[in-house]
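Table S2 (text version). Query chain:
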Amino acid sequence: MKKSSVRAFGIACFLIGALLAIGNQFNLPFVSSSENKDGQYKEKVLELEQQLEKANKQLAQFDQAKSTPEPPQNEAPQKEVASEQIEKPKETKKEEIVTGTLYIYSGLTTADVAQKIKELGVINNSVEMELFLAQPEYAKSIQIGQFELNSSMSIEEIANIVTGKKE
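Corresponding structure-token output:
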């Protein structure tokens, strides 16, 4: 084989690799597979929305049960315990602002990030945060690093901080 043939083959491989990298960076439809990723994001968002609807229905049922007259004696202790468990976090949230440092590293999913934020005590509902971060404009731009968050921030403010977007 001639040197020129091997050189031409090497240059061609380099150019193809460079074109694929550029195409993926700018989300060109004939090079990148963003359609598949968008479909996955949409499916995940729909699934999380269904979970949120279920949770909201359960909360509504609980509120209705709480507002109804005294239940029979055998069910009263269970409902009292449940109401105490729900009321305590609300009282502590009103009194103090929880702050924490969130560490995001490569490979974390939006669900992992939302769960970490909930574990810090900054938010109460990780599903709502996950739904917000699963939107394509946020999911594709989550930054790696360390972020200072507090419970007085809205979900949108937290998402903007985590993604590096300015408000």
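Notes on Table S2: The CA atoms of residues 101 and 145 lie 10 Å apart. The radius of gyration is 24 Å.
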